[in-house]
């Protein structure tokens, strides 16, 4: 990749965020039009998630070539080739955290959804919240933004800056108190660092995208919600008997809990060790 000026890097960062927003709006617009012509909502959810990824890939590919004047592979976006070890990790991380919570005192409740509502919830959770958001956010944050920063200011800055930005994005628009904002920022930064290290392990966003997608599907995809109160938008809710802030994650939920942060840290260490082994080869 040729030398990039600070101005072009700034354009790249803003452009990447803009691509994410535009792609999401376009995919949701298409899904809304399909709903109007009476296509089943669960199919519309699937289309929305797939188109979210397709729009992002198509627009970002042109943006990278025509504006940034480089190739997608230079920004850790090679051909789809996730490694089996990270696919296994993608399942084990959210599954382990879910099991830990289910072993705590609490009450499992059903929302009483109909069969069609269950299909709609699962389709949205898997295709849009899971695959769509997981893959797109990795293309934007760990693909374009992280690599542009690394090219100009080095690897440490590339890991920290997008991760903090990733944490801040999850606070925007939320009416959280100060303590919840700080907890979300810490957790968001921690998970951002984890995704960054996973990407750097094989210089590919597809490994972090798999971890991100499966995490979203299991933890926030609507299959089972874990927290202080039941969630009517989830198929099942596990209502915890505790209200301890560090355990429940406060207003944001268990993604910002100490248990989740420990999980992010363990996976980050594994990824870091993998990077070190690659350097020694």
* Spatial arrangement of strands, main beta sheet: 1-3-2
Shape, per Cα inertia axes:
globular
Number of helices: 9
The major pleated sheet works out as:
3 strands, mixed
Series of secondary-structure elements, N-terminal to C-terminal: HHHEHHHHEEHH
In words, what does this structure look like?
The protein is mainly α and 281 residues long. 70% of the residues lie in helices and 5% in strands. The chain is built from 9 helices and 3 strands; from the N terminus they run H-H-H-E-H-H-H-H-E-E-H-H. The chain has helices spanning 6-36, 41-66, 84-102, 115-153, 155-169, 178-202, 205-220, 245-248, 258-280; strands at 106-110, 224-227, 236-240. Strands 1-3-2 form a 3-stranded mixed β-sheet. The two termini are 23 Å apart.
Task: Name some characteristics of this structure.
single chain, 281 residues, mainly alpha, three-stranded mixed sheet, 9 helices, 3 strands, 5% strand
Spell out the blueprint of helices and strands.
Elements: H1 6-36, H2 41-66, H3 84-102, E1 106-110, H4 115-153, H5 155-169, H6 178-202, H7 205-220, E2 224-227, E3 236-240, H8 245-248, H9 258-280
Parallel strand pairs: 2-3
Antiparallel strand pairs: 1-3
Brief characterization of the structure:
With 281 residues, the protein is mainly α.
């Amino acid at each position: 990749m040729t030398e990039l000026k600070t101005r072009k890097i700034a354009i790249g960062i803003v452009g990447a965020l803009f691509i994410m927003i535009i792609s999401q709006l376009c995919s949701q617009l298409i899904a809304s039009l399909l709903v109007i012509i009476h296509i089943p909502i669960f199919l519309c959810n699937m289309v929305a998630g797939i188109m979210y990824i397709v729009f992002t890939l198509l627009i970002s590919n042109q943006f990278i070539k025509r504006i940034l004047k480089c190739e997608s592979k230079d920004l850790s976006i090679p051909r789809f080739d996730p490694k089996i070890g990270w696919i296994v990790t993608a399942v084990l991380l959210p599954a382990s955290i879910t099991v830990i919570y289910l072993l705590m005192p609490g009450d499992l409740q059903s929302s009483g959804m109909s069969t069609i509502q269950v299909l709609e919830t699962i389709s949205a959770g898997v295709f849009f919240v899971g695959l769509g958001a997981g893959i797109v956010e990795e293309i934007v944050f760990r693909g374009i933004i992280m690599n542009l920063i690394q090219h100009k200011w080095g690897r440490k800055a590339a890991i920290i800056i997008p991760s903090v930005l990733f944490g801040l994005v999850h606070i925007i628009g939320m009416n959280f108190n100060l303590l919840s904002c700080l907890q979300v920022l810490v957790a968001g930064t921690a998970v951002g660092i984890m995704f960054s290290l996973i990407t750097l392990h094989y210089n590919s966003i597809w490994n972090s995208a798999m971890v991100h997608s499966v995490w979203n599907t299991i933890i926030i995809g609507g299959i089972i919600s874990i927290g202080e109160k039941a969630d009517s938008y989830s198929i099942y809710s596990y209502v915890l008997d505790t209200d301890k802030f560090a355990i429940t994650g406060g207003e944001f939920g268990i993604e910002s809990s100490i248990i989740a942060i420990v999980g992010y840290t363990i996976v980050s260490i594994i990824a870091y060790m993998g990077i070190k082994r690659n350097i020694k080869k």
